[in-house]
Each structure stands twice: as structure tokens, then as C-alpha cells.
Amino acid sequence: HNITILEARNRVGGRVNTNRDLGFPIELGAAFIHNPKDNPITNLVKEYNNATMRDYNFSKCVFYDHDGRAIKEEAHTKALAYFRSVIFDDFYEERENFQTMWDEPMATTLKKMGFYDELSPEEQRLFDTFCFQHIVQDLQADLEDVSSKEYDQTDFGGDENGAKIDLFFTTGFDNVVTWLLSGTSLLLNHTVLAVDYRTHSPFFDRLMDVFTLSESTSLSYYLYLVFAITEEALSHGISIAGNDLPISIHTSNGTFKAAKVVVTLPIGCLKRNTVRFTPPLPSELLNVISDLGVSSTLKVAMCWKKEEVFWEKGSAYFHKYPSNEEGGLFGKGEFIEIVNLWELVGEPCMLMEVETLFAEKLSLMNKHDIVSRLMIDIKQMFSNAIPPTKGVIVSDWSTSPFSYGGFSHWRVDTSFEANQEFEYDISRALYWAGEHSIWETFGNTHGAYLSGVRAANQISLSHTQCGVFLLFSTFSLLSLLCCSVRRSKVKCE
Q1: Residue 378 · residue 318 · CB < 8 Å
Q2: What is each CA distance from 425 to 62, 245, 433, 437, 457, in whole angstroms?
């Protein structure tokens, strides 16, 4: 079978984006394997023998207050324990009072609980910082946009001491993607503009459904169904002499034909209708696409000479509370997370990430202004005498026409049932994959991977009776996976 991957970008990987412009790998997209013991990506990495990984300890963090002052470890530990008790115990207890069909923003629920006003200003800022670190950044969404009813990130903060160990690719996440692509036809710079599946006939698929009925089904009922399906096909002018007519995929570099299409467009692109589907997608699916939230995120890598490293080399990362007057209630505001690449890979580089409204604000600036704004906080944290950067890379996922945001989250009155809508194919022609299409592990690379495996299995099973047609999507992070299958190879013998 022929498998063709149509990628809009000039690189592979989608939201796995390893940049090497400064001479070493910098992850501007997915970077970590979370919960590696039970993560399917861990097994893939083991198969790819050249991947180099190392532990990333989230407890090795320094927190800085609004004025740039480092928070003492004792105050941090006490505040984290309190934060965990509020979220794990008090918040869930408050949520039990919700009526079955009622929901509200998580920020509203926390305000109603009344504890926040009883905290000191420093305790409030620490609580806000933990909201950002463990919820806002985890979901890339403000708590005003997150469903209280469905929030279930019970693994944040690691163990009782806040220790959490993930794995980090030191040689580049893109190497694993490239390895998985071996044996496939990859076409870069092919932006998909439209998918026309009007000519797709589910005639043979429906016949195959008949033969998968229970063994106790009578022969007369089998024959009745076969004749009924055949008569319906003929009445609509559908030929039954061959297999399904091809689906047309129109791109910026020509039109392609396919028997099956796996759509891995990011949720942001689906919300923007960047691809025209004919006929239109079902209204139930369109409603889900509208209801799901999509994050705004921006990453900035700043690098210096090795002899100019001015920050604490042994810390894994740093967090900075907003310095402006607006503050950061429940993690909303101009928070900054800095991953220390010196500690991870021995390179004199800071990888900064900002979310939601702050990311949207920075996305309106040019690179020079973005650096100037972030440098205000860096100087507060470390020193006013900071040498000029050697290199800067900015990755804005929110404005990119190939993503229009980060990943999905459950907004108010939205639940896992929304993600489940993507588990169903459309006319045995379109199949779905991507982090937004799987509810158990949405928002993660391994979720995108598992959704690709699901789509492959669905297509394989749909052709079980006339030869197995197996599609294996890599991370499902590529813009569109198009499977071109020769008619002679899927014909029932």
C-alpha cells in the first residue's frame, strides 16, 4: 500500500519542533516525555537506539517574587503543601456540590471557596504561581476558561514532596520523528486547502459490515442485507464493479487521490476552517470543534557565550511572578517559566515559555521588543549587568497558520465526550488523529501518537475481509496523512 504524508511546513514533526540554528538542539515545541514509566513514547525511544535522554527533575526549581527576590525554600515548600491540599481536597469537595448538568470556570470556584483573601500577599503570590505552574501551564489555558467540573490533572506536583521526574531529549526530539518516517512518502511544503470526499462510496465497507455479524445470523438475513445494500447503491448510480472511488485532496502543490484520509490538522486550524471539506463536516463534530478550547503559547530561546552564564547553573528551571500591577490571580498574568538548558545539555541558553494573554501580547511585538520585555524580568531575577545575547529564536504557535495555537483543553460545559467525537470515522473516508482527538491523554505527544495508532487500526479493520490495509501514523502531528491505495490491492477476491 502507498502511504503519502502531506506536510504544509518545510520540516517534519508538526508540533515536535527541534531547532538547530544555534548549533545545538532547542525544543520549540514538545520537549518532554511525561510520566515515562507508562508512556508509549518511552518504548519508541528504546527502539530508536540513537536517542539520548536524561532525567528532568521539576523539583529543582527556583521561584522569584514580583520584585525579583528569590523565594526561600522553606516558604516554597509550605506554600506548595497548602496549594496541594486546596486543589486535591477542598476544590474537589466544593465541586461535589455541583448539579449534574452545571459547570463554571475553575477560577470562579476557587474564588467562592473564600480561602484566598485569608492568605498574606506573599502566600497569595505563591498560590498564584503554583496555579500557573501546575494548571495554567499544564493546560496552556487561564482558569477562567477551564471547566471546574472536568478538571482532573491529579498528577501535578509529583510526589508528596513535589518531586516529579520526566525525560528530556538531549539530542533532539526530531530524530525520533525522522526515524519513524522511514519507508513513507513525505511531501513538504504541501499545504492542504480542501478535501473532497463526495465520490467516496461506502458500498463495500457496508458489505463488509454484513459479514462481521454474529455467527448466529441466519443465511436468509445475510442475503437480505446484501441485496438491500446493492439495490440502494444501484438506485443512486453507484458502480458496484470496483472499489471506492478516490477522495480528492487539493493542496498548494497539486491534487492527490486517496482511498482513505487521516486528518491530523491541529485543533486551532480546525477552528479556523483552514481546510474546506466537501461535503461539510457533520454538525455534531463542528459543534465539538467550536466548544473545545485552544491554548496560546510562545517560546523564546536566548543564548549567550559559555563564559557569560550569569544564572544558577544547577537549577532545572526558574519561575517568575508578574512584576506589573495587574498581578497574577490564579496564574493569570505575565508569568514566565525559564528552562535552564545549561543544566540539561550544557549549553548557555535559557528557554522561556509564556502562556495565554501574555503570549498573545508578545505575539504582537517584533523579536527585538519581545526580548526587551522579557529582559525586564531577567534583570530583576539575576542582574542588571547582563551581556548582549549571542542568539535569539522565537516560536509563536498562536499566530502560525499551521497551528493557530497550542493544544486543546476542556472549557466550561465541555467534557471528554467532545474528544470522543473524533473517534468516529466519516463515511469510512475520513479518520481523525491528533492530541485533541483522544480524551484520555489529550494535550500530549503520546496522546497524539495513540490516536494515530487508533486511526491505523480503524482503517485496518475496515478492510479485514478483503486484505488488511494498515496505516501507521507516526506522532499524528503532521498536517495531513493521506493514504493512496491501488484499487487492485483492496479488491475483494
Answers
A1: no
A2: 47, 17, 11, 12, 12
Q: Give the separation between CA 188 and CA 473, rounded to whole angstroms.
A: 16
Lowest mean pLDDT among 92-106, 144-158, 447-461: 144-158
The DSSP-derived string for 90-146 is IIHHHHTTS-TT---BHHHHHHHH--GGGS-HHHHHHHHHHHIIIIIHHHTS-GGGS
C-alpha–C-alpha distance, residues 152 and 128, integer Å: 18
Question: Is 378 in a helix, a strand, or coil?
Answer: helix
Residue 265 to residue 479: CA distance in whole angstroms? 5
| Count of CB atoms situated within 10 Å of the CB of 421 | 19
Answer for the pair 293, 140: CB distance below 8 angstroms, yes or no.
no
Q: Which residues touch 275 (CB under 8 Å, ≥6 apart)?
A: 192, 193, 194, 195, 263, 265, 269, 480
Quickly count helices (H) and strands (E) in the chain. Answer: 17, 22
Question: What kind and span of H or E run contains 270?
Answer: helix 267-272
Whose cell is 493512496? That residue is 484
Among the ranges given (58-72, 333-347, 375-389, 460-474), the one the predictor scored with the smallest mean pLDDT: 460-474
Beta strand pairing call for 349-355 and 480-484: unpaired
Q: Are 162 and 316 a contacting pair, CB within 8 Å? A: no
User: Using CA atoms in the order 220, 225, 231, 233, what is the torsion angle rounded to 10 degrees?
Assistant: -150
**Tens digit of pLDDT for each residue in 25-55?**
999 998 888 888 888 888 888 787 666 778 8
Residue found by looking up cell 502566600 in the block: 123
Taking the alpha carbons at both ends of the chain, their separation in whole angstroms is 17
All three cell numbers of 484: 493512496
The answer to whether the predicted template modeling score (pTM) of the entire model surpasses 0.90 is: no
Inform me whether the pLDDT recorded for 342 exceeds 50. yes
Q: Is the dihedral of CA 221, 225, 231, 232 positive or negative?
A: positive
Q: Are 256 and 249 in contact (CB under 8 A)?
A: yes
Contact partners, residue 323, CB within 8 Å, separation at least 6: 66, 67, 68, 334, 376, 377, 380
